[in-house]
């Protein structure tokens, strides 16, 4: 385990130094998480329902191509008069990206893990990243308070 030095400044910020990288976390704002959720298209409504249930205020999604542990589906291609079955090298997935308060991340992840797929049928993957802060353009608000619908613009 690399050496971890913690230095506190008078402003309440905490600097973490680990393997030549410096991370800044403002202790007054709390930690937020970015969730990158890769799913098959049919599961998008389940993900958005979970995010709405947890009062998450924003998300983005797009279609991506990739390869991983999930089973690729065979497709039938027409080649002139003949039809052949092929397994494509890459498979289409839907990527959902959202940033949530740290306090909600575990609840969202557990809900998705419990309600999508099974041990015998994996349906996606979730990557979790720490985000040092979030800023709302225009209002100049920041921190985890802008990440849920309880945040009201005055």
Commentary on this structure:
The protein is α+β, with helices and mostly antiparallel strands. 16% of the residues lie in helices and 39% in strands. It has helices spanning 44-53, 102-115, and strands at 5-8, 13-18, 21-26, 32-39, 60-66, 75-79, 82-86, 91-101, 124-131. β2 and β3 (21-26) form a beta hairpin. α1 (44-53) packs antiparallel against α2. The longest helix is centred in the last third of the chain and has 14 residues, at 102-115.
Instruction: Write down the CATH topology of the largest domain.
Output: Alpha-Beta Plaits
CATH secondary-structure class of the largest domain: Alpha Beta
Name of the CATH architecture of the largest domain: 2-Layer Sandwich
Q: What is the averaged pLDDT score?
A: 76
Q: CA-to-CA gap between the ends?
A: 46 Å
Give the strand order, joined by hyphens, for the main sheet. 5-8-4-9
- Radius of gyration of CA atoms, rounded to a whole number: 20 Å
Give the percentage of residues in beta strands: 35-45%
Q: Characterize the main sheet.
A: 4 strands, antiparallel
Tell me the total number of β-strands.
9
**Count of domain modules:** 2
What helical percentage do the residues reach?
Answer: 10-25%
Secondary structural class: alpha+beta
Highlighted features:
39% strand, four-stranded antiparallel sheet, 9 strands, Alpha-Beta Plaits, 16% helix, three-stranded antiparallel sheet, alpha+beta, 154 residues
